[in-house]
Fold this sequence. Notes:
Blueprint: E1 3-5, E2 11-13, E3 17-18, H1 38-46, E4 50-52, H2 60-69, E5 78-83, H3 93-107, E6 112-117, H4 124-139, E7 143-149, H5 153-162, E8 169-173, H6 181-189, E9 193-197, H7 205-215, H8 222-232, E10 236-238, H9 244-251, H10 260-268
Parallel strand pairs: 3-4, 4-5, 5-6, 6-7, 7-8, 8-9, 9-10
Antiparallel strand pairs: 1-2
Helix pairs in contact: 1-2, 1-9, 2-3, 3-4, 4-5, 7-8
Amino acid sequence: xxxxxxxxxxxxxxxxxxxxxxxxxxxxxxxxxxxxxxxxxxxxxxxxxxxxxxxxxxxxxxxxxxxxxxxxxxxxxxxxxxxxxxxxxxxxxxxxxxxxxxxxxxxxxxxxxxxxxxxxxxxxxxxxxxxxxxxxxxxxxxxxxxxxxxxxxxxxxxxxxxxxxxxxxxxxxxxxxxxxxxxxxxxxxxxxxxxxxxxxxxxxxxxxxxxxxxxxxxxxxxxxxxxxxxxxxxxxxxxxxxxxxxxxxxxxxxxxxxxxxxxxxxxxx
Length: 269
């Protein structure tokens, strides 16, 4: 696995495994939990060493279960989670701490590699209040790195101006339906790693065929080409698949680079 170096000198795998629908009936985000960690265990088997989870996913405990079942040492896994996005969380610092502590308990760990504000709260002041508490845990070494998710330029600008600890990542959605180019470039300009979720959604048949053609000389699929594009654009990717074979394919994108003309073509779409 290759890594990106974060602005705090820690490193993060270039490819992580999304988990938002894992362990749920019919892979429905809002459905009942099944207590089945098989998709996460498949991911470990094919080589993933990073999981992206969140309190709102309700499956943090399944990440811990999968790691235990696969007999992987905690220090060999990179775990990312996110604070609850319920607006009630920001009412007091104690509630913020209670939310963070629940992640430690669910993940059965005394530290988390990367912890995010899942989405902006109602005001910039609320975001900063949560961030201040996350900074405390970071200073104690319990949150090795801290970052944000779904922040736009105005929200991120405010946080950068007031934070003691700079966010290391901003997790954003990026795919052909919305590349989110402006916020991605802003992050790169400010030494914040863009972390891409849902990278393989919203690909129509015509664009899929063009990506397939780009991948043929490298014996890569359209999905592998699209994931490689994000890496070549300086972004980390966290795809998610319910199929072990596809999980392995999503990971198998480190042995080629896209030609400059292909990158330019994709950027224009």
